[in-house]
Amino acid sequence: MNTIGSQSSPVTPDNWERQEMRDALAARDVSSVYKQLRRVGVSQRQIAALTGQSQSEVSEILKGRQVMAYDVLARIADGLGVPRGYMGLAYDEATALKVVGGADEAEQREDEEAKRRRFLQHAASVTMGAQVLGPESGAWVPTAAQTPTPNRIGLTDVRQIEAATRALRSLDYQYGGGFCRDAVVAQLSWTRQLLEVTASDVVQNRLYKAVADMHSLAGWTSFDTGLLDSARTHFAKALELAKLGGDNGLVANILYRMGRVYLHNDAAGEALKMFQLGQIAAQESGSALTVAVLCANEAWAYGRLNRQDQVQRMIGRTRDEFERAQGEEAPGWVKFFDVNDLHGMIGSALSALGEFEENRLKYAPLAVNELIKCNDGYESNMQRTHVFGLSMLAENHMRVGDVDQGVKVGNQAMKLGDAIKSKRISDRLKPLQLEASRRKNNSAALDLAERIKVYRTV
């Protein structure tokens, strides 16, 4: 694999020091930057691979199309190895979100839809067997090594990566992505360098999977803290490496997580496509529990789309696959899906149907029954998931008219949520806030709505 600054790559640090190039970078004139790279022998295909763009996009930019979006400029800078300061990009994604916040809403929506389409194309290509990280894919690692790497690595080194990922994932489950995302990203800055180190085929294969899993965790914690573009970038890298490692179960895991990103962001149609693509990998993995997870999430997506027959069909498949999985040696990532999560996911799908006014009386009571079973079994190491379940349960209690119980459970969710650093909690509490605010004659419900409002604005 080529890297920025390596002898095999024409894109070297010297490219950025010529005055003409520095002027183009300072002006964020990407068209001029690409033209200058072409003059020193960098092909359109190499530029596309390095920057994560399609060749058609590169061609359009070479013809003069301007690049304005911060995240695209940042991806171009990182992909080509340009110091961000040269392009005035010396701030993180959280700051960038504030900077571009004044952009036209329609343009932002169009940009997000384009990103979803590109990710889906990328995911489909990787899942269906396209070559990834090929000889011209360039460096997806933008930063230089800060710590010297060993000359050769063995299984012990890979086990340490796996152990670090498990420990960090445990912190994410219990305290939220905001508690550990920086640590995950910092760990990756060292770990991903090992892909360049000499290793046996067995070690290399396991290393691909280990680094893929850490990228997946980086994507998940980025999602949990509201950094959607970072999440998408990490999941894309995770997908490529999992495919290189030949781990279909991990591919399914990554696609499931990316589907959840879209589901959370009210893009149920795109989420469903991710889950269906993940289902292909899940079937190939041979793990019934992995298949059950994808079926359960498909049911939830169908619920958001008010596809009642499909929800019932996928709930049935979920239960069948879960039963079939009993006694199997499931992959580590999917072991979280126990009987509590089974009830929780079924409850989520039914609750999604209950969000539609015409379905409330039919599905809200069913959702309550499933979510009660779910929440009774959660332990302290799954605090965030417990908050999600409690807030959804409280919401459905109110839908069926049991407002006092809804308030009680909602306050319990708020108490647990105070200790967790997760933007998703704030987002997932919004439906409960709306349900509580409708109870104009119940002061306790209105107090809960106000408490959630304050929590979500802090």
Decide which structural class fits the backbone: mainly alpha
Number of helices: 22
Q: Mean pLDDT, rounded to whole units?
A: 82
Could you list the spans in which at least 5 consecutive residues all have pLDDT below 50?
Answer: 1-9, 90-103, 133-146
Largest sheet: none
The topology string of helices and strands comes to HHHHHHHHHHHHHHHHHHHHHH
Distance between the termini: 45 Å
Shape: globular
Protein name: Transcriptional regulator with XRE-family HTH domain
Pfam family, one: TPR_12
InterPro entries: Cro/C1-type_HTH (IPR001387), Lambda_DNA-bd_dom_sf (IPR010982), TPR-like_helical_dom_sf (IPR011990)
Domain HTH cro/C1-type: 41-87
Can you describe what's shown?
Residues 41-87 form the HTH cro/C1-type domain. This is Transcriptional regulator with XRE-family HTH domain. It comes from Kutzneria viridogrisea. It is a single chain. With 458 residues, the protein is mainly α. 69% of the residues lie in helices and 0% in strands. It contains 22 helices and no strands. The protein has helices spanning 19-26, 30-39, 44-51, 55-62, 70-80, 93-99, 105-127, 155-175, 177-191, 201-224, 228-244, 248-264, 268-285, 288-304, 308-325, 339-354, 360-375, 383-399, 403-417, 423-428, 430-437, 443-457. Helix 10 (201-224) runs antiparallel to helix 11 (228-244). It starts with 18 loop residues before the first helix and ends with a helix.
